[in-house]
Design brief:
Number of domains: 2
Protein name: GTP cyclohydrolase 1 type 2 homolog
GO molecular function: metal ion binding
Number of helices: 10
CATH superfamily of the largest domain: NIF3 (NGG1p interacting factor 3)-like
CATH topology of the largest domain: Udp-n-acetylmuramoylalanyl-d-glutamate--2,6- Diaminopimelate Ligase, Chain: A, domain 1
Keywords: Metal-binding
Number of strands: 13
Pfam family, one: DUF34_NIF3
Structural class: alpha/beta
CATH class of the largest domain: Alpha Beta
Helix content: 25-40%
Organism: Sphaerochaeta pleomorpha (strain ATCC BAA-1885 / DSM 22778 / Grapes)
Distance between the termini: 38 Å
Shape: elongated
Radius of gyration: 19 Å
C-alpha cells in the first residue's frame, strides 16, 4: 500500500523497491530485451527530484542534470539484452551519469502493460473508452488495452486527443469508430489482433509497410502517432503518481524525435 505521508526526500533504494513491485519488473524479465530496473546507480542516497523521459540518450541526460535531478526514469533504457562495449557515445553516456551522480532506472514493457500508469491504459482513458480490457498477447503477456467509446469517433479527432502531430492514418475502416485497440511503440503487427477481435480501429506508434494492404482489404483503420509520441504517456503518468503519493519533485524531460 502506498504511504500517504508526503516527504521532500526519500531513500533511493526504497523508491526503487517500490517501483520494482508496482511495475512488476521481475515478471517481464523472461520476455523483455531491455534491462529494466535500476541500471546505473551507486550507493543508496536521498532522492528529492526525479526526472522522466522516453529515451536514455545524451541530450536527455544533459537536460535531467540541468534540472538538478537525482534519478532519471526512462522507457527506453541503455541496455538491450546483449553485451555492449562502453565506447564512443555509449561511453559518454555512462560517464555523464557517473560524473554527475545521476542514477538511471528503465521500465520498458512494464510501462507499456501497466493498467494504471502504462502508455496504453493512459491513452485508453484519454479517449474516454469504457469496458477497458487487456489486449494483444506478446509471449504470454498482454501489453495493450482495448475499449469501447460511448460516442462515435473519427481518426482525426482521435489523433488530436492523443497529441499526435503528424500521424499516419490508414482510414480503411468504419467512418464512425467505436471499438479501439491500443499498443504503443513499434507494434503495427498487433493490428492482426485487432482484426481477430473485430475492432474498428487500432492505435500504435509506427506503421510498417506490410500491414497496409491487410488493413485495406480487411477494412480496419490504423492510426500511427509516432513511436516517441505514443510513449510519452507512461513516464508522465508515473511522474504524477510519484509526486502525488510520495511528494517527490518530478520533471518531464522532453526530447521529441519526430519519429
Amino acid at each position: 500500500m502506498v504511504s500517504t505521508l508526503y516527504t521532500a526526500t526519500m531513500k533511493r533504494d526504497v523508491l526503487i523497491n517500490y517501483l520494482d513491485q508496482y511495475l512488476d519488473i521481475a515478471s517481464f524479465a523472461p520476455i523483455d530485451r531491455s534491462s529494466n530496473g535500476l541500471v546505473v546507480g551507486g550507493p543508496d542516497r536521498e532522492v528529492k527530484r526525479v526526472a522522466f523521459a522516453v529515451d536514455a540518450c545524451q541530450k536527455t541526460f544533459d537536460l535531467a542534470i540541468e534540472a538538478k535531478s537525482d534519478l532519471l526514469i526512462v522507457h527506453h533504457g541503455l541496455f538491450w539484452g546483449s553485451p555492449l562495449p562502453i565506447t564512443k557515445s555509449h561511453y559518454n553516456r555512462v560517464k555523464t551519469l557517473l560524473d554527475n551522480h545521476l542514477d538511471l532506472y528503465a521500465a520498458h514493457l512494464p510501462l507499456d502493460a501497466h493498467s494504471e500508469v502504462g502508455n496504453n491504459a493512459v491513452m485508453a482513458r484519454l479517449l474516454g473508452l469504457l469496458q477497458i480490457e487487456p489486449f494483444a498477447l506478446y509471449k504470454g503477456k498482454t501489453l495493450g488495452f482495448k475499449g469501447v467509446s460511448a460516442v462515435s469517433l473519427d481518426p482525426a479527432s482521435i489523433a488530436k486527443t492523443l497529441g499526435f502531430l503528424n500521424p499516419i492514418i490508414l482510414p480503411f475502416g468504419k467512418q464512425e469508430i467505436r471499438t479501439i485497440g491500443i499498443v504503443s511503440g513499434g507494434a503495427s503487427d498487433d493490428v492482426y489482433a485487432a482484426l481477430d477481435e473485430g475492432l474498428d480501429c487500432f492505435i500504435t506508434g509506427e506503421c510498417e509497410h506490410q500491414v497496409y494492404n491487410d488493413c485495406l482489404e480487411n477494412k480496419i483503420t490504423l492510426i500511427a502517432g509516432g513511436h516517441y509520441l505514443s510513449e510519452v504517456f507512461g513516464v508522465q503518468e508515473l511522474a504524477g503518481h510519484l509526486k502525488k503519493n510520495f511528494g517527490l519533485e518530478t520533471v518531464f524531460v522532453a526530447n521529441p524525435t519526430g519519429l
